[in-house]
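Changelog-adjacent note: as of this version, every example in the card shows the full chain rather than a window. The one below runs 171 residues end to end.
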Amino acid sequence: MLSCYRRVVASQTGHPAVTERKVRLDGTVEDFRCEVLALEAGRHAVLRYVLDRDWHVAGTILIPKGAITVSHYWVDRPYNIYHWVYEGRTLALYVNIADRTEIAADIVSYRDLVVDVLMRPSGAIEILDEEELPTDLEPAARKSIADAVEVVVTGARGLMLEIERESARLG
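Full-length structure tokens:
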């Protein structure tokens, strides 16, 4: 969903570039070039890109052209997070429920499990795209997704503080 709007390469800041690879449940793959802010192979990565056009999220949030996205990935968490920042303030956090995250020097790859969680600075939380889950998805996969959503929702405030602090430190 978001990925089709990202078009950034190693950039103005001189940070090296890395490929972000999104693998969908149906096996389709999208690759994007992003700037590396921090990368510890096999553990954690923080990437950056700048939106090249306005983008609307969940029909209610406008992420304007020029907004910075600081994306956070971990191999040991069931999600990754896009932190949207514009003019120094958080617009929202967009949590992709994901698994099979791999982090190497030249690629950050994950399997997108369809469901997303939108977290607003006000504390409001919205679970997105559950209706897009395949009807034939195995019960174990459904449970993994539900468990990941629960982790995100119950820890939302702490997660938002962690991401804002880390983005500010690296961005």
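Structural remarks: The domain at 3-170 is CATH 2.40.380.10 (FomD barrel-like fold).
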